[in-house]
Amino acid sequence: AEVVIVPDRAAAGALVADAIAELIRTRPDAVLGLATGSTPLPVYEALRDRLAGVDVSRVRGFALDEYVGIDADHPESYASVITREVVEPLGLDPSLIQTPPAHDEDLAGAGDRYEAAIRAAGGIDVQILGIGTDGHIGFNEPGSSFASRTRVKTLTAQTRADNARFFDSVDEVPRHCLTQGLGTILEAGHLVLLAFGEGKAEAVAEAVEGPLTASIPGSAIQLHPHVTVVVDEAAASRLK
Ligand code: F6R
């Protein structure tokens, strides 16, 4: 992976947004892989300026994951988050932006349907990724197969505690999710993993430099030929 150390979140957002805006200018129907959580927010923020005046009417997008067990219109569902943080501020066509169909009646078939939709779009051009303190990417928690596809997973206690800040209490954080698999993520054309803060330093070092292991799902990025890791000094502090 190419590791880029930036001074702060805003610099990371600017760097990644420049690349995405350039992609959209050259390929107006680009397919974006959209992460949620706190980490990608500076990218989405920086894209507002950069996409002003750019034709985004054909931009397509697929979210990495979605909670199972809260309504689609819950403010913290990733469908709501993507609408609020990405689709509306950037003026994207909501019909071209999908989140994993975790609210479908047929949840067992939902993963395959999402995979089919990504395939039908021709695959994801650039996949934005955060990383969990337990080393997850998407919601592929430790123990996930490197060959995994979109499926229902159980969130670890650590991930639920980490995400409690988005809910009234940890008890309200869903226990399950529908997430792109590691195999799905590895098929994107370009992976851009961002991480900020001391709390991510260990996970970043293990993902980028540690052995390939299902215990650190983020280490799967080492199998991909085109990865950019954008980190601040604190998140880079355990890299050798
Ligand atoms: C979100 C996702 C997760 C987050 C990770 C870090 O779509 O797939 O892997 O990227 O949990 O979350 P934050 O950015 O909130 O620290």
From TrEMBL:
Matching CDD domains: GlcN6P_deaminase (cd01399)
Metabolic or biological pathway: Amino-sugar metabolism; N-acetylneuraminate degradation; D-fructose 6-phosphate from N-acetylneuraminate: step 5/5
Presence of the UniProt keyword Hydrolase in the record: yes
Domain Glucosamine/galactosamine-6-phosphate isomerase residue range list: 11-222
Pfam annotation, one family: Glucosamine_iso
Keywords carried by this UniProt record: Allosteric enzyme, Carbohydrate metabolism, Hydrolase
Regulation: Allosterically activated by N-acetylglucosamine 6-phosphate (GlcNAc6P).
Reaction(s) this enzyme catalyzes, per UniProt: alpha-D-glucosamine 6-phosphate + H2O = beta-D-fructose 6-phosphate + NH4(+)
Active-site residues (renumbered): 65 (proton acceptor), 134 (for ring-opening step), 136 (proton acceptor), 141 (for ring-opening step)
Record site: Part of the allosteric site: 144, 151, 153-154
EC number per UniProt: 3.5.99.6
Known function: Catalyzes the reversible isomerization-deamination of glucosamine 6-phosphate (GlcN6P) to form fructose 6-phosphate (Fru6P) and ammonium ion.
NCBIfam families given in the database record: nagB, PRK00443.1-4
Family statement: Belongs to the glucosamine/galactosamine-6-phosphate isomerase family. NagB subfamily.
Protein name per UniProt: Glucosamine-6-phosphate deaminase
Species of origin: Microbacterium nanhaiense
Gene from which the chain derives: nagB
